[in-house]
Amino acid sequence: MKKSPALLKSVVTGLVTILTLIIFAYGFSVTNVNFEETRSERRLASLTRILRALAHPKIFDYTYETLNVEVPFYLGCPEGGAAFPEVDRSGAFILVNAGCAAPKETITVEGHNFQENSSGSISFIGISPEAPDGVPISIGNFQADAQGNFKVEVTLPNRQIKPEPQALRATGQIQVGAPMLSQESKVTWDKIIETVFMALLATVFGTLLAVPISFFSARNLMSEVKSPLSNISLSLIGWPLGMWLGIKTSKFLANLLMPLSNSFLLVLAGTLVFPTLGFFFAKWFLANQNEELEYRFRKRLINLLYTVSLAALALISILFASKLLLQIGAYLTPNKDVPLYFLRKFIAQIGDIIAMLAPVFATLVSGGIFGGFFAQLGQTISDRMPAATAKIFNLIVTPIAGAAVGILILQGLNWFYQFNDPAILFYLPAGIGAALGLTLALVAAPKQPLPIGIFIYGIFRTLLNGTRSVEALIMAIVFVAWVGLGPFAGALALGLHTVASNAKLYSEQVESILAGPLEAIQATGANRLQTIIFAVVPQIIPPYISYTMYRWDINVRMSTIIGFVGGGGIGFILQQNINLLNYRAASVNMLAIAIVVSSMDYISSVLREKYV
Amino acid sequence: MLEVKNLSKTYDGGMQALKNVSFNVKQGEFLAVIGLSGSGKSTLLRCINRLIEPTSGQILWDEQDITAASQDEMRHIRRKIGMVFQHFNLVTRSKVITNVLAGRLGYVNPILSAFNRFPQSDVAMALDQLDRVGIKNQAYKRADELSGGQQQRVGIARAMMQQPTMVLADEPVASLDPVLAHSIMQHLEKINKEDGVTVLCSLHFLDLVHRYADRAIALKEGALMFDGSPDKIDDQKFREIYGKDAERIG
Questions:
Q1: Which of A7, A104, A482, B169 is deepest in the core (most CB within 10 A)?
Q2: B106–A379: do the CB atoms touch at under 8 Å?
Q3: Interface of B with A in 68-97 (CB under 8 A)
Q4: Which of A235-249, A411-425, A522-536 has the lowest mean pLDDT?
């Protein structure tokens, strides 16, 4: 029997309605939706208080003068009571409902002619032979109304009774002069500048890293990267070997140059001589680089030697340059009071950054040189050897490469988990890696190009997605532990987050470029690097600019709250003010954030329109 | 001499674009490739410089096996094969001269070219080539400021920068109006006649085939249907190539 479609439809609609109701009912329950609270007097009162405070940002402030008004007062009534003293009613004055009272008794104090809406305190002035001017004891506060009058009850202190008259004093405040920027505004200004620059640094340095990463995480570029197994295995051995050599060399050279760095002249000479040497060497090398298809191992080995020497020259030049900058920086900043201190210090800071990056440079370049050399060797084996020879080669080399990768991975993990057990650190990963390598070498056809590009793409994408899913706020917690509280930690956290998010956005732009120019450049016989520079880069410049500006915008917004976890910037004082219930100051901070964010938004949209 | 032997290409989805195609092209010949859209003309041309990897078969060019060449060798071979595209495939945001110089990428030092540094002789040659196609005065404009016909001339200049012995033209005039089509075809003819460059050109319009080609081959659903002089394509042959409902235009 065939069911009526109309009936079926209404049953489905009914079920969907019920399901929707259930989902929302559960949602209300887990989010603790509570309308009782929203109506309670107490809650409404505190809401009103906070909102009113927020509506009065303390941008301006006045200079205050204190106004003291006193009346004589007897603590412990004298015989026959105390006469009410005559009060001068021309200025501000106070009246007490009794001229005398016993300690701990409550009296009423009335004030008149005070400044409208001003507040102040009431104190009892105890006069003794040791302190003829009196010692004030605060016994209460007052808040004048719109006419400048107040009436409060205060309790007298528990002091010794004296026959002489003592006094009650009301201390009010009078605004004098024109309004000026409040202390809160000044702090906010300082911090908002800090915030904007934090975002700027994070965006610039994050973008610099994100651009190369984005190429590795673009599917259309990476899917074409295919290499035979012999190539992959050998470069897996070549890269770590080269990186290790690079680290060692950079340490060795840094130690070697250490004693020289005390002499300014030597450092200056080194900074001039080595780059010049490197430049001419590079020029000579490039000029003599005649392209040969025929693979000659000896020739390639000599080339490797040249490249390594060139890289070493570059490294020495970098080290000398960093030393020179550090020395100039130190010379220019004998103390903190010199004019333009920040500019002079920046020279030394650049030197410091270069010194820090030198080992990174050495590691990557050396890894690339050796990885490339080995890859070329592997490619040639696959291209020129008979299939059987290539297969045997793979069967030997791939397990070695697998074992090497396994050990390296475990070395990395050991830093986190501290196994410190040779079985786990060496034998197990080497065994598993070798077994996997052997399986691969057995299964893969010896000359078949394997899609290694997609594999690298997958690794990059996974890492990026993982990093991106951690909010900058959480990264900031880690960086605060590393570099301490302050804007530097915030800038690092935002920078890292920028790398992850922008690399993904950029790579999507690379994926959406037109394939035509890519094909045309390839058809001219260009290599992969040339293809990227001539066909990909011109196409992605506009979206890259656009996304970078958007990211700056986001980073400014993020940096306003990154201070909540100690990452510096305006969030730091915003959180402080909220915790101290200083809502009027918090309101100034929030106003500044709103102004900066909306102007950033405006500026970036104008720039994007202009340049993209 | 280019020899294509039993060339087949099956795409990943199982679509068979070329079925056992075999033909020869003599050095200096102007060969037209005709057939319906989707008949495999573009695939055939792209298999010759291996922008598309053929599934099976052999392509011999002056005795060298293109299909067996390694990546490095392939780059070397591609330098001598210029290519012109239907949609010009210029990098539109770059200058015209940069687009033309890109034709030298296979020859120049890869590291220097990464910084957009080309030898003076190459720059002079690029201006010469632009002069030859009549747009030397546009050299420093952005490519997207040029009209369609001018863009295709840039494409030809780029191919000529490779000093090719063969040019593959993939429907070079399909996006242009008839007047421009003839002007572009005349440039290709000039290259063919004056420089002795072999031209393999896929075309839609039969009158262009008759006017410019020495020889024509026809593809239908990936299979070679016809190989011979363009004059031999009579009405019956035409229906075989283009289907029985087709009518001749132009």
A1: B169
A2: no
A3: 70-73, 75-79, 81-83, 85, 87-94
A4: A411-425
